[in-house]
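User: Predict structure, ligand succinic acid.
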Amino acid sequence: MQSLQVLGGISAAEFFAEYWQKKPLLVKNALPDVKGLLVPDDILELAQEDGITARLLTQQGAQNEQWRVKNSPLNTKDFKKLPPLWTLLVQALDHFSPDIAALWQHFDFIPQWRRDDIMVSYAPKGGSVGRHYDQYDVFLVQAYGKRRWQLGQYCTPDSELIPNQPLRLLPDMDVHFDEILEPGDLLYVPPTLSHYGVAEDNCLTLSFGFRMPDSTQLLDQFTDHLLSKPDTQIPVADLAARSIQSAGEVSPTDLAMLKQQVIQLLENTSYFDEAALSLLTESKYPDSLPENDALTTAELRELLDEGAIIQREPATRLLYRPVDETQLEFWAQGEKLDVPAKLAPVLKRLADGETLNLQSLDLQLTDAEITDQLLTMFCDLYEDAIVMIHIPE
Ligand code: SIN
Ligand code: CO
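Assistant: Predicted complex:
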């Protein structure tokens, strides 16, 4: 079993058995490559750009007891005359920085479809987002400065919250963990565990979030998908053709049969799988998708000759599923992709997080027809913002 530095030398299997969704894990120097990647000014600037989802939290009042939240768009005015305690949260940092997106590789032991986005928080000394719990798994990684983390009790939807606040804040925490994280350190926090992170000095913390899709969202997507499939819009079996006692009653048997019809739709069609892949690959922040110009195959070939690399566009989810022993089906941005079978192995490498260049693509060795198909596919994927193509600095 491979021991992973990001998990402090334990294997993924040990992590899943011992910690995942069960208990927290602190790893000192888990991600040394995060050091020096970002400084607070980068985040201040980014937060004020178009298409960014950000929140500015402030604490007001004599006891810093009243919280306020200002949602993006944010501008310089919002950062003038701030009270001493504030926090700036920027979502989907990975969509704007390939270097940050590359940090996901440390978490390749968890399927990509579980990934949410990478959020960053920036706070001056004393700043925090308050005592709270989240419904998802999060790896908190200290990127700049220091933050003190306290962990408390597990919470439920009935846990008491501070009234009249714009955030779901806990009045207190039963602290059993109290540590200061330095750049490169990681803290895994399982869902529903209360946590409280207070900046020790000007600090940046990255949150690598992992979630499960919500069942109601899945059902919603499923019904939308069914509505586009005329063959499923058949009337349910006729329940009226039975002798009844009372005209006004809907019997439990009738309801059970109606439910059964719906369950059969879920079970006996491939539509649920398609709806799920469509939901899993939808962009949560469509504003962060770049608008790429069309690229010709000749231009792409030239770029590759100059050392360009091709990788998955960080703002896009590219996933695949096996449809039989030999074939893969690819999905991105909520849609099924039309990929020639011969090109599937290359696209799989991209979906698995690999970065491709002229050498690794081995263009010279493949035949001219495939090379042409491959370049055409990359040009189309680039125009649809499913891959990014750039020359590394
Ligand atoms: C923070 O980075 O301050 C907040 C992250 C979290 O609590 O999930
Ligand atoms: Co949290």
